[in-house]
TrEMBL record:
GO CC terms of this entry: plasma membrane
EC number annotated for this UniProt entry: 7.1.1.1
Function, in words: The transhydrogenation between NADH and NADP is coupled to respiration and ATP hydrolysis and functions as a proton pump across the membrane.
Domain Alanine dehydrogenase/pyridine nucleotide transhydrogenase NAD(H)-binding: 147-314
Name of this protein: NAD(P) transhydrogenase subunit alpha part 1
């Protein structure tokens, strides 16, 4: 099979879908890999490293794509890219399926398009889970971003000139990104609190040495919210949560928000009023910015400072700020996923495989996303947080 790796076009997208390590493995399986020249530049992979791993280099995207049977990407293909794919090609990428305007065009081109966001959260899928690998990076990078804007130290310091107080960090949403944000902030010496709508996260938060802020819940609410993914909560729960969280938010120096609900706009957890009550110099890093933001004042892609001196950071695509490692992990996820279809003996798309069935959004000239009754396909995240 011929496998193409085009360069990513989206502004700020520094990642690449294959690395010399994964190219080498694909070539060793007997496949041909074509990399668009410059595709790895922003991930610290020069063309020469791909060539050394056995790839050929294509001077343009069209040259890379025109005869490729399989295309590996990070961002969903745009209309002009889709036009350049070979009819019937297989494409594996983040696809933003809930808001992708090109599904019909991909189906018309008979692409077998796989949306990596739709991978079920099962044990077998763990090594292919791009949301986990990329959100882990986002959580880490969010804390470093906070230290950049926060005008004080993170750890407690005892100096000859006096004692410096540790920063108080509040993490809202304790999925993969939130857990890594807790761990990173703790490593830097901050005092960390965290909250999540899923009660099962309490133990995880406490095992990392942080304090869990628990919103009182009825038994019914507990049962409804304790799945792998969060559900949208009732207005009454939101009011109780807001009351409790407001107190902690106003006492925090740094807030990192990561709360997402699959397929929906991110829930608003911090109102403009709460931001107005925060201390000058405080920082909010809204990892959910790309999905609409958890803070009312977040502007996706921008950093703003309020009149009362709070910095609200809506920087999107945090994994791309750690591009080399983000690409390494993403590329390994994709290689493992490809091995469900690709072997030394060729290519087989087995729709009985639950991981392939849940992620395949267009196939054989039809749009499958939204048409299947598979619970895993219906209950997965929308956000292109990665
Ligand atoms: P996510 O990105 O969908 O959401 C981030 C967090 O925000 C979640 O913990 C969610 O509960 C929380 N949240 C949503 N609404 C909220 C609200 N109103 N207030 C407070 N918090 C709110 O989550 P994720 O990182 O994808 O992780 C989801 C779960 O999946 C986690 O339990 C994770 O450990 C699990 N997971 C399992 C596997 C696997 O088994 N293969 C792989 C990865 C993750």
């Amino acid at each position: 099979m011929q496998i193409a790796i085009p360069a990513e076009r989206l502004a700020g997208e520094a990642r690449v879908a294959a690395t010399p390590e994964t190219v080498k493995k694909l070539v060793a399986m007997g496949h041909t890999v074509v990399v668009e020249s410059g595709a790895g530049r922003l991930s610290a992979v020069p063309d020469a490293a791909y060539a050394e791993a056995g790839a050929s280099l294509a001077a343009s995207r069209a040259a890379a794509l025109s005869s490729a049977d399989i295309v590996l990407k990070v961002r969903p293909p745009e209309a002009d890219e889709i036009a350049e794919f070979k009819t019937g090609a297989t494409v594996v990428s983040l696809m933003n399926p809930y808001a992708n305007p090109h599904l019909a065009a991909m189906a018309a081109k008979k692409l077998s398009a796989f949306a990596m966001e739709l991978l079920p959260r099962t044990t077998r899928a763990q090594s292919m889970d791009v949301l986990s690998s990329q959100n882990n990076i986002a959580g880490y990078r969010a804390v470093l971003l906070a230290t950049h804007y926060y005008p004080r130290f993170m750890p407690m310091l005892m100096t000859a000139a006096g004692t410096v107080k540790p920063a108080r960090v509040l993490i809202m949403g304790v999925g993969v990104a939130g857990l890594q944000a807790i761990a990173t902030a703790k490593r830097l010496g901050a005092v960390v609190e965290a909250t999540d709508v899923r009660p099962s996260t309490k133990e995880q938060v406490e095992s990392l040495g942080a304090k869990f802020i628990e919103v009182p819940m009825t038994d019914e609410e507990k049962a409804a919210s304790d799945g792998v993914y969060a559900k949208e909560m009732s207005d009454d729960y939101k009011r109780r949560q807001a009351e409790l969280v407001t107190k902690h938010a106003m006492a925090a120096d740094i807030i990192i928000t990561t709360a997402l609900i699959p397929g929906k706009k991110a829930p608003q957890l911090i109102s403009a009023e709460v931001v107005r009550g925060m201390k000058p110099g405080s920082v909010i890093i809204d990892i959910a910015a790309e999905a609409g933001g958890n803070c009312a004042l977040t502007v996706p892609g921008e950093v703003s400072v309020t009149d009362n001196g709070v910095t609200v950071v809506g920087t999107t695509n945090l994994p791309a700020l750690v591009a080399a490692d983000a690409s390494n992990l993403y590329a390994r996820n994709l290689l493992t996923f490809l091995s469900l279809m690709l072997s030394k003996d060729g290519f087989t798309l087995n729709l009985e495989d639950d991981l392939l069935a849940a992620t395949l959004i267009t196939h054989d000239g039809a749009v499958r996303f939204g048409q299947t009754s598979s619970p895993s396909a219906a209950a997965q995240p929308a956000a292109t947080r990665a």
